[in-house]
Prior knowledge:
The structure holds two protein chains of two kinds. Chain A contains twelve helices and ten strands. Chain A is α/β, with parallel strands linked by helices. Chain A has two domains: 5-82 and 159-231 and 273-325, P-loop containing nucleotide triphosphate hydrolases (Rossmann fold), CATH 3.40.50.300; 242-271, no CATH class. In chain A, helix 3 (98-109) crosses helix 4 (114-127), helix 3 (98-109) packs parallel to helix 5 and helix 11 packs antiparallel against helix 12 (307-325). Chain B has one domain (2-15, 48-246). Chain B is elongated. Chain A binds chain B through residues 48, 51-53, 73, 77-78, 80-81, 83, 85, 87, 89, 91-94, 104-105, 108-109, 150, 157, and chain B through 109-110, 113-115, 117-118, 120-125, 129. The structure holds adenosine-5'-triphosphate and magnesium ion. Chain B: Keywords: Membrane, Transmembrane, Transmembrane helix. Chain B: InterPro entries: Permease_MalE. Chain B: This is ABC transporter permease. Chain B: The chain crosses the membrane at residues 35-59, 137-160, 185-204, 225-246.
Amino acid sequence: MGIEVEADGLTKSFGRHTVWRDVSLTLPAGEISVMLGPSGTGKTVFLKTLVGLVRPERGRVVINGVDIVSCRERQLYRTRRLMGVMFQDGALFGSMNLYDNIAFPLREHTRRNERQIRSIVEEKMAMVGLSGAESKLPGEISGGMRKRAGLARALVLDPEFILCDEPDSGLDPVRTAYLSQLLIDLNAQIDATILIVTHNIQMARTVPDNIGMLYRRQLVTFGPREVLLTSDEPVVAQFLNGRRSGPIGMSEEKDAAATAAEAMTEPDLDDVRGVVPQLTPTPGQPYRQAAARRQERVMRILHQLPPAAQQGILAGRHEVSHERTG
Amino acid sequence: MNALAETGRVFTLAAQVARMSFTTRPQVRETVEQFWFIASVTILPAALVSIPFGAVIALQVGSLTRQLGAESFTGAASVLAIVQQASPLVTALLVAGAGGSAICADLGARTIREEMDAMEVMGISPVQRLVVPRVHAAMGVAVLLNGLVSTVGVVGGYFFNVIMQNGTPGAYLASFSALAHLPDLWVSEIKALIFGFIAGVVAANRGISAKGGPKGVGDAVNQSVVLAFLLLFFVNLVITAIYLRVVPPKGA
Lengths: 326, 252
Ligand SMILES: Nc1ncnc2c1ncn2[C@@H]1O[C@H](COP(=O)(O)OP(=O)(O)OP(=O)(O)O)[C@@H](O)[C@H]1O
Ligand SMILES: [Mg+2]
């Protein structure tokens, strides 16, 4: 099963610019979580903090009993072998073709022979739809392909904690839908803890078990998906609906006058808030253990959640049990 | 303060590389590849530079010894100057200038493409996987080049002294054994080894801390070459001073 990841009181600044402060959350083991947030709110920095690439000024990140922030280098490297990271721009090795890129972690960390490596690499490349592109160099393929190759490389060591930085940006809507399904199937197959950083609303509504949002140097919320999807917070509502009217401006914040003016000029669009059914694994894939575990967990804390979220959860409960028997 | 932090980083990296050279599995393939690469960008310029360099020293020393009436020592004096000073420095300039800038540009480009981050999260230390092999390669190439530059320089010096200044071939060779001894050659190679290490570490340090896109890489390369030159000349002074104190010159 995947591993639980606990962030506690994280604060990060670059010089005098604070990216976010006092961020605490727990990614439940084996579940899929999404971190939302407007551009530049520090989602990538947060992801890098969880894997120990960025050192926060304060706080802890506990993975598998190891505090990533303060542990020794040896232990950090050992813990990282449990992780697979898909970077925002793929971060492929420019001097190697896709095959060698994806085979790299296997060659470095395992004693598999070349035939075994080939079969694993080909399987992962097929999984992300890159079969036939083995001999291409990263510089010769599109941004979307680089990303998918980055995901394939993140998966070859069967990680227990998968982090994806904006898996959807640079992908067309159809590929994004396939990718969403792929992440769900992957979770069903290997039961890994998954964190997705994105600003794609469709993905945020249909894929995760939990959603959080970073805004104005803070973690606005983090919890079961129903909480954010039914939230009345102006920031959340604006973000989910992708509107101009609301507290989020082109740069970080904006004044009240601009907000009022925009509310007047913006056409009245449909409100897309509300709980929609979560994706389920493709038929033929194993049952997603995380769904049942999450359900138990959420039912225990149900009474602490806002009424709208409770309703959403209770409606969704039906689907989970349905799926298991069906 | 910035310079201090930078110095700290260079020393930390140097210590890390030195430690990893003994404690981790050597990256043979990467080292060999880098060795050939650095050799390929430095050998030809080294050979081309060393002929006029040897000639200049031979001519200068030749005319000086004639003024002093010590013509019989022309050979030994110019060989010592070439082997102990000129050759390690020419080597250092080439390894730092041509080899170091290539190392720095390569690592810098990888850094801004987040390849280093990617490697780290795969549980692989970029210092061990990329920096150590490059530093070893730079050291190897420096020793190789030093041998090459010394040889070419000495042969060139001999040629110029005998042909141009009508020196006697016999006296040129005989004076070798009068003034020069084996430690002179060793210190030359040890210098080259140390210069290779410094050039490699300084270049790698600038490369892995590059930031701010392609322009950042350009700046990093520039800084690494300047910094390496400064350090190399300073270290040369220190080593020379120590050597001349510790190892008594022959015949003294
Ligand atoms: N190495 C760094 N040095 C200085 N500032 C940085 C560094 N990395 C990130 N920042 C700053 O931190 C803030 C958050 O950046 P980050 O890349 O995490 O945003 P993001 O939420 O991922 O945005 P996007 O959705 O566009 O990818 C930005 O203001 C950025 O300028
Ligand atoms: Mg980002």
